Amino acid sequence: NKDVESIWVRLYNHHYPKNNYIFNATYFPPKLPKNYNVKFSNYFIESYKLLNEKYPHANYFLGGDFNDFDDTKLITNTDLFKLDTPPTRNNSKLDLCYVTHPHLIKNCSTFIPSFPTDHLGILVTPMTKLPNIKYNEYFRDYRFKFKQDFNALITRIDFSDILKIDDASQAAEL
Questions:
Q1: Which of 21, 49, 57, 126 is most exposed by smallest CB count within 10 Å?
Q2: H-assigned helices in the chain
Q3: Please, which residues bridge with residue 23 across strands?
Q4: DSSP conformational letter for 87
């Protein structure tokens, strides 16, 4: 949906294909017209229902900067629960998390992100440690020659302009 800034990601292990984790990261801009809240809620409800039909046993984690989003419709039309998150910008709770299995969450805490932002990050700690499965899958060819080529390329790039920028959006545009 072009009106919604949101991304969905499904993680699973091929050894346990029914053990799906579906993550969503969202940005809901502040001071939008009321009808946008309805569009946004409808998008989330429809997306959630479609994914839930395909992955009915998945664990869902939705999080993001929700600003003044009214989540009443989202909560009443899905089986998502809002976690009690700490304030992330001054004393405001703008960054929120929703999950399908709140009993799996131990707590939520904040941390200072490593990139320029006026928000704290939220760390969601699970109740139990997930099983350690010894399986590696590489997305990049890690042979020595390719590492050398990559290192040579990265050393030729001047990052000084990017490091001077405090706004993450402006830095990403460079």
A1: 57
A2: 34-54, 72-77, 144-155, 160-163, 168-173
A3: 9, 61
A4: P
Q: Are 122 and 134 in contact (CB under 8 A)?
A: no
Torsion angle, CA of 92/68/52/98, rounded to 10 degrees? 10
Backbone φ and ψ of 169, nearest 5°: -65, -45
Q: In the predicted model, what is the mean pLDDT of the chain?
A: 83
Q: Are 4 and 36 in contact (CB under 8 A)?
A: no
Give whole-number Cα distances, 97 to 80, 87, 101, 166, in Å: 10, 12, 12, 26
- Taking the CA atoms of residue 82, residue 52, residue 10 and residue 75 in that order, the dihedral angle to the nearest 10 degrees is -10
Question: Is the whole-model pTM more than 0.90?
Answer: no
Instruction: Please give the torsion angle defined by the CA atoms of residues 8, 14, 16 and 19, in that order, rounded to the nearest 10 degrees.
Output: 0
The torsion region of residue 25 among left (phi > 0), alpha (psi -120 to 50) and beta comes to: beta
3-state SS, residue 107: strand
Residue with tokens 């499904």: 10
pLDDT (average), residues 134-161:
71
Q: What is the 3-state secondary structure (H, E, C) of 117-133?
A: CCCCEEEEEECCCCCCC
